User: Which sequence fits this backbone?
């Protein structure tokens, strides 16, 4: 190891009751063999998932599957949760000291982590933008599940972080007609910055070849089904926690032979699972963040120490900010 360390006090965010969080101090010992010490620089909130965690809406049946890497505590509360942190290596092999890394770790200012659990951030990806890696990984997995093609008409319903990432990737397909669909007309500016089309639900073009649903609402899923053309696929990326969704599968759903397909990042998409590992997929997602247009998805940095007070606002529905950014500096 390049440096030595003794136990020290670090700070971590814990969700402690419905709508409540606090920063707790924890003792952190020296890294074990094979581990690194990382000092956090930036993080991001996953608005959909962390809003469910904050409000205690993780279903009991999903307690095990919903555990994040290096999560502390147990659902529903208290729980140390989060999975988007970019930091700098302080202790580890000489070749990694001062390197910038991304890892799926809860919101915490310093932590020890296995070397195998971090991915180096390329020099052409700024630290702030690298916090979008988890969202990009989800979007990449969805692309593998959906298999969109050049010249396809594609709608993405829900202009949150994952929806924006999916539409951005689809927009790279030659000749593809890509529309980001959202009830908030202010999201048109966001779509413009990543160079895809925009529409509110009532004006969106139907007869799409593929529709991605990312809104997290029953109304959004109904819109996605309505926009799908004959024999088309609707890729469902939303996770609803303990909510029960009323969903109409009558009307033209069967006569048009539509397909409703689940896509979830916990497993590598079946089309790639035999050849790709989770770490390889995450590294590929970070490489896809080299485009500066994606900076438009980040909100103004919020100081880590202010998170307990700011979380209800940052995670509230209808916010214009796509990816709330946490600063540890």
Assistant:
């Amino acid at each position: 190891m390049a440096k030595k360390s003794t136990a020290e006090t670090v700070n971590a965010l814990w969700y402690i009751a419905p709508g409540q969080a606090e920063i707790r101090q924890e003792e952190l010992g020296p890294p074990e063999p094979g581990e690194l010490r990382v000092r956090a620089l930036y993080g991001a909130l996953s608005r959909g998932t962390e809003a469910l965690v904050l409000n205690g809406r993780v279903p009991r049946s999903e307690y095990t599957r919903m555990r994040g890497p290096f999560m502390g505590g147990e659902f529903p509360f208290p729980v140390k949760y989060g999975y988007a942190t970019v930091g700098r290596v302080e202790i580890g092999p000489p070749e990694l000291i001062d390197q910038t890394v991304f890892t799926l770790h809860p919101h915490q200012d310093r932590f020890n982590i296995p070397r195998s659990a971090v991915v180096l951030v390329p020099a052409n990806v700024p630290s702030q933008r690298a916090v979008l890696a988890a969202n990009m990984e989800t979007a990449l997995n969805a692309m593998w599940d959906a298999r969109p093609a050049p010249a396809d008409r594609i709608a993405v319903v829900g202009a949150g972080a994952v929806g924006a990432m999916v539409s951005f990737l689809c927009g790279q397909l030659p000749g593809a007609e890509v529309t980001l669909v959202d009830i908030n007309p202010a999201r048109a500016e966001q779509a413009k910055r990543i160079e895809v089309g925009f529409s509110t639900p009532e004006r969106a073009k139907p007869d799409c070849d593929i529709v991605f649903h990312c809104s997290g609402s029953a109304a959004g899923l109904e819109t996605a089904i309505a926009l799908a053309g004959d024999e088309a696929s609707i890729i469902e990326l939303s996770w609803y926690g303990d909510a029960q969704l009323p969903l109409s599968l009558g009307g033209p759903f069967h006569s048009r032979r539509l397909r409703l397909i689940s896509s979830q990042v916990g497993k590598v998409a079946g089309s790639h699972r035999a050849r790709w590992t989770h770490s390889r997929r995450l590294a590929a997602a970070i490489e896809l963040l080299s485009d500066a247009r994606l900076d438009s998805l980040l909100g103004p940095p919020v100081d880590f120490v202010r998170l307990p007070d700011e979380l209800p606002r940052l995670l509230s529905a209808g916010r214009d900010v796509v990816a709330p950014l946490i600063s540890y500096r």
